[in-house]
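[stage:ingest] chain + small molecule (adenosine-3'-5'-diphosphate)
[stage:ingest] validated
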Amino acid sequence: SEMYMLYGGILLPRETHSSESLEFAQGFSFKDDDVLLVTYPKSGTVWMQEILPLVLNGGDLTSILTIPNWDRVPWLQGKRFAVIVDQLTSPRALVTHFPYNFMPPSLHTSKAKVIYVMRNPKDVMVSSYYFHQMAAFVEDPGTFDEFMDKFLEGRVLFGKWTDHLKSWKQSKLGDRIMYITYEEMFKDLPEGLRNISDFLGRNLSEETIQKITEHCSFNSMKANNMSNFSLLPKTLMDFDKSPFLRKGVAGDWKKHFSSEQLARFTSVIRKELEGESFSLPWSLD
Ligand code: A3P
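[stage:predict] done
[stage:export] tokens:
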């Protein structure tokens, strides 16, 4: 399609990627104190882009209130990366939607840490469906049922959800990678923040944890122009169709899936994950 390019077997939007930016990402040197946020699209990326700098800087809101999220925690493979990354002060937080096998060699040789945020794939699909309606640089989703087939077959940006998860689960990064779910952050954000802070070797006071919790709530983020994408022109994201920060809950799929769709979705995901050594943190049905 005109909007997408194929790279290593997966689809990427041309709006945010170029052959130059992909090459730059391939040659990028991670530093030991870098933190890489990894997500499959619509799993809570922007939420963690809000959280990470605050955990790293001990709750200083300055950058969060003055720099848009895409420059605060920049996209490894994105067009702006080469320019932005040099302006960041260490420890740097970076983000990618790439599967593990697309990582530059320096991720392995450095001591950089990785935080992998995963979300119930049914809610990922619902969130993605609305995103495809409002974002002008991605294809129209078609009907919900059509989009489900595309999602399950991996004919979507960044490929199959299951392939993404498998690649990072098999990454052998040992204690350099932390897995956290959208659902556990939704249920108890302070506890999520404590876990993230422990993983990153930070020692945050309860007061700071509370401050970050308040700032990173769905409503605070929705009101923060640096985080809610309202700085983008309507020609790129049309909030009249759907806001980027749309619902921010766990389990919205229940309002969207028919019982037939649920059975189809569950059986495909089960089959894709057959024989894997990890299990999913949510029940599929
Ligand atoms: P919904 O469409 O289900 O509302 P990503 O950033 O990976 O594209 O994911 C976007 C999803 O994360 C959206 O889900 C969005 O509302 C949700 N989200 C963003 N910030 C959040 C927050 N502070 N609390 C809960 N959900 C949040």
